[in-house]
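Students often ask why we bother predicting the structure of a whole assembly rather than each chain alone. The short answer is interfaces. A chain on its own may look different once its partners are present, and contacts between molecules only exist in the joint model. In this exercise we take two input lines together and write out one structure for the complete complex. Read the inputs first and try to guess which parts will touch.
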Amino acid sequence: MKEVVNCVCGHVNPHGTILCESCGRVLDETQKDSKMIDMRYEGSARRSQTYNKSIIDKIWNFFSSVKVGVSLIVILLIASSVGTIFPQEQYIPPTELPEVFYEKEYGFSGKLYYLLGFHNLYSSWWYLICIAMLGTSLLIASIDRVVPLYRSLKKQKVSRHDGFLKKQRIFGITKTDQQDIEFAELKKILESRRYKIKEENGNLLAEKGRFARWGPYVNHAGLIIVLIAGMLRFLPGMYVDEVLWLREGETKGIPGTDGRYALKNNQFKVEIYDKKNKEDQTFNAAIDKVGTIVKNYQADVTLYEKEGNTLPGEEAKFKKVKDHSIKVNNPLKHDHYALYQVDFKLDELSEMSFNLMNKNTKETFGMITISLDDPKTMYKLKDGYSVELLSYFPDFEFDENQEPVTKSPIPNNPAFIFNMKTPDKPEGEVSFVAIQQTLEPLGENTYKMAFAGVDTRNVTALTVRKDLTLWIFFLGGAIFMIGVIQGAYWNHRRIWIQRKDGEIWLAGHTNKNWHGLKRDISMTLEGTNIDEPEDQLEPKNLGELEK
Amino acid sequence: MVELSGNLLYASFILYLIGTFFFGGAIRDKKGALEKKQNKWAVIAIGLTILGFVAQLGYFITRWVASGHAPVSNLFEFTTFFGMMLVAAFILIYFIYKTPALGLFALPIALLIIAYASMFPREISPLIPALQSDWLHIHVTTAATGQAVLSISFVAAILYLVKSVDQTRRSKKTAWLEVIMFAMVATIGFVIITSTFSAIDYKANFKWVNKYDEEAVFEYHLPALIGPHEGELMTEGKMEPFVKMPAIIDANKANTVVWSLFSGLILYVLIRLLFRKRVAAIFKPLVKNVNLDLVDEISYRSILIGFPIFTLGALIFAMIWAQIAWTRFWGWDPKEVWALITWLFYAAFLHLRLSKGWQGEKSAWLAVVGFAIIMFNLIVVNLILAGLHSYA
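Now the answer. The structure tokens for the assembled complex follow.
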């Protein structure tokens, strides 16, 4: 059996109602003696204020409390600020190990920061739990309020109980013997001030901006959508975050696209502001002060798409899709993917050339050019001379046993072991050649590989991004904005005007911006014989000023 | 064009300054104390304010024309713009509520902000690639406008507190109010010290050893009270520091902070000696005609107006641009986080207003904290917490 509260006026209210939905009588005994009515949520029956028995009631009441919501906001606010004391792990230099970096950079406090896990604060379990709790609070607190509020506002009657009117913040009584004329006049003015008028038994309710009351719930719905979008990100296929390093002239498959797309880097360039340029001369003072200021990072690329389906191992055919100049703030977008200019390397070595030379006579026997990406094992020269490449170390260093090794496949510091075969040394002489360094591990040689030049190219780093949750975030954000504007820039104002014998009673309520309501009322009453109602909250000391 | 732009900014500064005095006159005249009836002083004061705003708008437009981009790309330009929007927000609120007393506090705060801004490099600098986007204009101007409108709630809060806090006896409230006053005095101190030493072109170079045990050079523009780690003065005839900092602290910035606090303290003590009152108590007679309820409502209203603008500019537009420029709309960069913190704070404020008891004085203190967060995001995050937004 559903509990109900019967009001004297005959209206049946749900259990827990504080103010009768229809006439506004105070139903809650504890509030009967207060000087003013608590108009929050129209005194409607909120679940959280009514039931507190089962565990579900308790959970519901916990999350529907504004106090809990505000506490969660404050906890998140403080936690978030802690995460900015030192940089988060994603912002420390990629070559640094976090366990070393924080202590080295910030001393003991840095070490503590790392040990407490604050270097990854925003993805920590406790931070995410706080956000989840805030989301729950948003949802439950909104439902707890919006349903009964909607009921109350829909069911409100024009004729209100005397006690309801008297206990409004704005209230006044005017004695008059021309009730009907005054009434018609007021109605006309209120209508012209764009109030919606409802009449009943010779009483009047003027109402404006009720939809502002839904603002908070609309914006909460937007926020909930944003949080859902955040969760969807963890679904496979929704989100791609890859990096593609691409050298000039190179074509590579785009990671994260399952081999469907390939990209060619035609050219990468960095431009700087130049005092010699006419259009840059406004900035001379700044250029003098700072030195180099970059104007543009740009990768000219061509996008290719695979044609048809290929079996594994079968060579795929690619067709050109489009050319694009990827710049910062101008990514290449195609088919939900976006490619962003994020990093680069200038003048990476691409080719090295050497002359085979007799150390004594300085006579040379031809030049070899080694592609550092794809070196050959044998370079034939004329007249029976040749050079064999025994080993290649693109990023060479000596390991702890003094053996040459390579740190990475990137040609930062190339080194070679050559076997130089000449007519007089048909077995060949072995030479170890690195930049500005030549070793002859197997004894003194007659010949050497003399450095003859390098060729370089630029490398661009592109972030490959696909984010199918974006539109949901955007939708949530847009709904939030609509809701927050609706709630902040409009006010729900109500003016009740009732006829009692020989008197006109006027009461006003607004959910906020009392100044605006008072101004509305005073402009309405201007030129009528109705007295301006009192603001019952106004401090009495203001009376002095009027004199 | 650049010169004209600078002169217009200067003119607006002077106009705001004179406007402040007229607002002072407006509230001394009893007739002007009540809303609706504006006295002559108030009319002149708001007229000067609008004129100053127009001059500053002129600065903004001419600088935009000269540089080819909206002048909101470094700390000087952004902070000046923030000051301008603070004045704009004040003008808007003034026309709703007609309270000259608000001007008496709003204009000096705008003046302080613009003066503070001018201490940073003022050359027109070109845009680095990350800033070359129309979103620079859209995002930064909206965010600054939101912050400026929110700051009006702080101005109203100061007005509220100066009137409501009992100055006849010492209390926690009088102490905190003095902390706010001291913060403003210290800003004046910073402006005076920085412009004095920049006028005499003070430069002292220090060789020092940084935290990587490497030698580095610091150029000090203020005499070094605080020297860098193992600092060695290289410029002859300049002051030797009293203390030296460990390597992990940026001694140059610490020196500026100490100078500001020190000069602020001297100024503050001088004011206290001169008036033999707390600084807030000096202003108290000026606000005796202020209606506290109305001021409370102004404070709340400006948060209601500013919050959606701030959300749009500092979060939504920011996220759209971050998605274009930085590949992701959210990356927990300090500036982003502090925008979120500001947003969360004002959200908490709005929810607290719903529960009883968080109106009037309590709400005024909250508005002060909100402004402190905005200032933290403007100053500390830019200058100390390094991140993607460190363009100054």
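Check your guess against this: Chain A touches chain B through 66 residues (CB under 8 Å).
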